[in-house]
Write a structure and sequence with these properties.
By secondary structure, the protein is α/β, with parallel strands linked by helices. The protein has twelve helices and seven strands. A five-stranded parallel sheet has the order 4-5-6-3-7, sandwiched between helices. A hairpin with a 2-residue loop joins strand 1 and strand 2. Helix 1 crosses helix 2 and helix 2 runs antiparallel to helix 3. It starts with a helix and ends with a helix.
């Protein structure tokens, strides 16, 4: 998804700040060397005068008369560099400094985004996702199957806890691989601490690395934001962009919030709106499937059942296992 207008403006404001800072640096350098080497100011004034004469000649169609002017400017430029070097300055000391030499801090090379813009894009999306710090630890590289039993089996599927986890892991990776080619949603469910949130974080990190817009909310925070948007009208447009139009929305721990008619209706609105816009959503919950419709509504569960890949995780609470293993 292309950046939203407010996201693009945020990045371009950063470029404007960089450019302004560099102009200030250049001005300070000019004042410094002019005071130390007065001849440099004379050279710059002469070059400005000659450049103006050259421009007028070109406008008047007298291109042949500009050759002498070019030579004079060239000689003055060489003298300028020599004076800087003789006074222990780099010869480019009076050129506008650039943080990115590729695009000269414009963000673009021609009509293409510079590599520095793409990095800024990813950094912004990470920051806005609410996941920046946690994803350094919770990602596919750190997903471990050691916490899942290879003997305990699910009676319904016949799979061990570890086989179930590997199946969920593969589904998550395929979700990432196919993200730009097919529309898919995931519904992760299971007991507390079996890896649902961790797995959604794995997906988030991979998509953020490729500059997709990923938004993460706990269920409590999501409905709190929706209530604020609905009743105070505060930042309504930007909030709706975040919730309804991000490439991926993650709703974590659904069922831990205080469920009421407002929450139920807003959940349906969010799910339905994103399905209509073909924007992917991941929901994780500790609720059992049979009690989900009781907490929300039949129509909400129906939308999930018909539009989401339902994935179960089983096992003992990994957080508690880590405590007994000394945090490992």
């Amino acid at each position: 998804m292309p950046l939203q207008n407010y996201q693009y403006d945020t990045i371009m404001r950063q470029y404007s700040k960089i450019q302004a800072r560099n102009r200030n640096i250049l001005q300070e350098r000019i004042e410094e060397v002019y005071a130390k080497i007065p001849r440099l100011k004379e050279i710059d004034d002469e070059v400005a005068t000659l450049s103006a004469r050259k421009a007028r000649a070109l406008l008047n169609g007298k291109e042949n008369s500009t050759e002498d002017l070019k030579e004079e400017i060239s000689l003055l430029t060489q003298e300028r560099k020599a004076l800087l070097v003789c006074n222990s300055y780099p010869e480019d000391y009076l050129e506008l400094p650039c943080t990115c030499p590729i695009c000269q801090d414009t963000g673009y090379v021609g009509s293409e985004k510079c590599v520095c813009f793409k990095k800024a894009e990813v950094e912004l999306l990470y920051t806005q996702s609410n996941l920046k710090e946690i994803l350094e630890k919770e990602n596919f590289d750190h997903f471990s199957f050691d916490y899942y039993s290879d003997t305990m089996r699910d009676e319904a599927t016949g799979l061990t806890e570890r086989e179930t986890a590997k199946r969920a892991y593969d589904i998550a990776w395929n979700f990432v691989r196919n993200f730009d080619h097919s529309f898919e949603n995931l519904f992760l469910y299971g007991d507390t601490g079996v890896g649902k949130t961790f797995l959604s974080h794995c997906i988030a990190r991979e998509l953020l690395k490729t500059a997709h817009c990923v938004m993460y909310f706990s269920a409590f925070d999501l409905f709190d934001l929706l209530a604020e948007t609905k009743f105070s009208r505060k930042d309504q447009a930007s909030n709706e962009e975040l919730i309804f139009n991000s490439d991926l929305l993650i709703i974590d721990d659904l069922g831990t919030e205080l469920t009421n008619s407002f929450v139920s209706s807003q959940l349906f609105l969010c799910i339905n709106e994103r399905i209509m816009r073909r924007k992917s959503t991941i929901i994780s919950t500790n609720l059992k499937l049979e009690s989900f419709s009781e907490n929300y509504s039949e129509r909400t569960f129906s939308r999930i059942a018909s539009n989401y890949h339902i994935v179960k995780l089983e096992g003992k609470d990994i957080r508690i296992q880590k405590i007994f293993l000394g945090g490992k």
